[in-house]
Amino acid sequence: MADQTDVQHLVKQLMAGATPAEGKALLDALMNGQVTSIFEKLERDERPDLLPVPERPRGYRVRLDLHGAKPPIWRRLELPGDLTLPRVHVAIQAAMGWYDSHLHRFRTGNDPRSACFATEFDLDEGDDGMPEADVRLDQILAEKGDELWYEYDFGDGWDHKLVVEAVLDGPPATVRCTAGRMACPPEDCGGIWGYDEIAAWVRSGYDDALLPQSFDDAEHGRDWLPLDWHPDHFDLDEINDALTIASAGALMALLGQRADPMTADDARQAGAPWAGFTSAQAIALEKLAEVGRFDWMARTSSRADRVGQLLESLEAIGVPYARVREAMQSIGYGRRELEGLDRWATLAT
Question: Does 156 have pLDDT greater than 90?
């Protein structure tokens, strides 16, 4: 039997595409304790159909839109076609500005009941489905206009639509953002409706009359928001810095259990300049790169605690802070990110 959160998510999925009559029948079934029928309905969804892997990799220029946002929140990305879906997930998180602190799911259409791919979490929970880790982007997208949908945070329900604008002659060397608009909404703000309230309040200059009900007062609201957050902010360089840092995730698969220092060739293949570090040091640096970028903006955050712990760990395994700072700067950390690291390094000592 599903828990309450599971049931709420399933009802949301089913109601999104239901007629009024179907919706009433589903609610009646739920009220009568017939939860099993909801699971059976979902289980009838077909598995995704995949295209054959192309003989040679291709690239895509895509537009990624946060569904329902007005004005639009979007990013234009260039993606290699041979990216697996978990790596597409990482790229979406970095390009949008999410923190990757909630579950996600890829699906083939707008309807929440569309065929979807199983995440590692789904499989660990015993769910069946086509593993997203086995699927490449070019097995889903082939030509201009093709779509892929991505949902993040089932509670807030952030739906993203990825649409192919052009098929490139060859895959780009790296994932990059070429254009976009608007800042990513704050995490856990209550979905698109909560975001709209917060955005209107910030745009008003923090007018008390527009203070969202989720905040006790203006001070609470401003402390809760990321530092200097504004809904109309967009910085292309910051986005590409985040994508560079996110690409370091490829390092994990290459390193395995290696204990010897990486060569320059190994580092280039991993997509991150960790040459000369042992695998333990490189893994800690990669983890710091993964979480550290976002913590400079958080006044109170469990992620900030993780930054401090990672800095202490790196010191313990022979990487002094000066070298850590140099490594983070080499993969695109800007002035404010480095200042944030300086602050947490001071607190950790």
Answer: yes
Give the 3-state DSSP-derived string for the chain, with helices as H, strands as E and coil as C: CCCHHHHHHHHHHHHHCCCHHHHHHHHHHHHCCCHHHHHHHHHCCCCCCCCCCCCCCCEEEEEEEECCCCCCCEEEEEEECCCEHHHHHHHHHHHHCCCCCCCEEEECCCCCCCCECECHHHHHCCCCCCEHHHCEHHHCCCCCCCEEEEEECCCCCEEEEEEEEEEECCCCCCCEEEEEECCCCCCCCCHHHHHHHHHHHHHCCCCHHHCCCCCCCHHHHHHHCCCCCCCCCCCHHHHHHHHHHHHHHHHHHHHCCCCCCCCHHHHHHHCCCCCCCCHHHHHHHHHHHHHHHHHCCCCCCHHHHHHHHHHHHHHHCCCCHHHHHHHHHHCCCCHHHHHHHHHHHHHHC
pTM for this prediction = 0.66
pLDDT mean over 73-102:
92
Question: pLDDT digit string (tens) for 204-260?
Answer: 999 999 999 999 999 999 989 988 899 999 999 888 877 876 665 444 444 444 455
